[in-house]
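Checklist before submission:
- one chain only
- standard amino acids only
- sequence pasted in full

Submission:
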Amino acid sequence: LDFASYWAAGQLAWDGNAAAAWDLKAHRAVIATVTQDRGMMPFPYPPAFLFPVMPVSWLPYHPAFALWVLATGAFYLWSARRVAPLAQAAAQPSVLINALIGQNGFLTAGVFFAGATRLAERPFLAGAILGTLIVKPQLALMLPVAVIASRAWPAIAGAALSAAGLLLAGWLAFGTASYVAFLELIPQISKWMAQDKFAWAEFASVFANLRTIGVAPSVAMAVHLIVAAGAAVLCWAAWRGAWEQRVPILCAASLLGSPYLQNYDTLLMLAPIGWFLTRQPRAALVLYLLCLLPVAMQIGWWVAPDAVPLAAVVSLVLLWRERVGRNYVLTPAAAE
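Returned file contents:
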């Protein structure tokens, strides 16, 4: 289970050896005390991520896992109520993935929803919330687009203060050695990526989809960047023009920014699905089913490219067409 990586890092920090969380051998040795999984489970987060991890890691592994899932899951549901009904938030497919493996998707999606839905009305507060995504910046690549397009300048100050404060607190709490160890680990992870050491089918990006089917890295990255640029342009237009659809557009576009998002990060698709629930139920169903497919892969039923990037692209197209007032159908029957 992925949570073993967090628990091991927290255990090392409690032992007064936080820097060892980024030492592959030391970290792996602690993981081995609770699981025999031989896969790679590094701790690729800055020292500040130890703050949410350490409180639960004080407990034995299994109670810690349960508390992590319950606490972060409750935060996600509380925050997600701003973009979708509670039942839909709980039924979002990647909820199951996060609950099964104990990843951080509940935490990061909760932060994203809490900040993005306040960005237009309370930009400083929204920025302060979103700045905490410094612990997972690949999820925040589209946020500067929305902030600059909407001229939400106080959000920049809020984000700078919270991000800098969090990084500084991590340095004060865990020392320079922790940051050095973290920065030394990142090139190793990049090397593993280049060597295809990770299962690309577990990643939810256009780049990963193309790598799954054997497309050369350079071509896959070029296509990914083209799609990401298109998403950024639409995000800019939505926030520049204060579109009603701007939050679901930002969430969907954010899933198309980084080549290295994984399927547990895809809770952000809740926003476009929630948008269409009452306006276009058929669209919501199609998007939901596309998000459901990776769950079957996660539990071992099949191996195929993750369908969430396709869901994100489709949702952006539908949101744009809705904005410009075009009628569209998803099946021939809908036209009757």
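Reviewer check: The chain has a mean pLDDT of 91.
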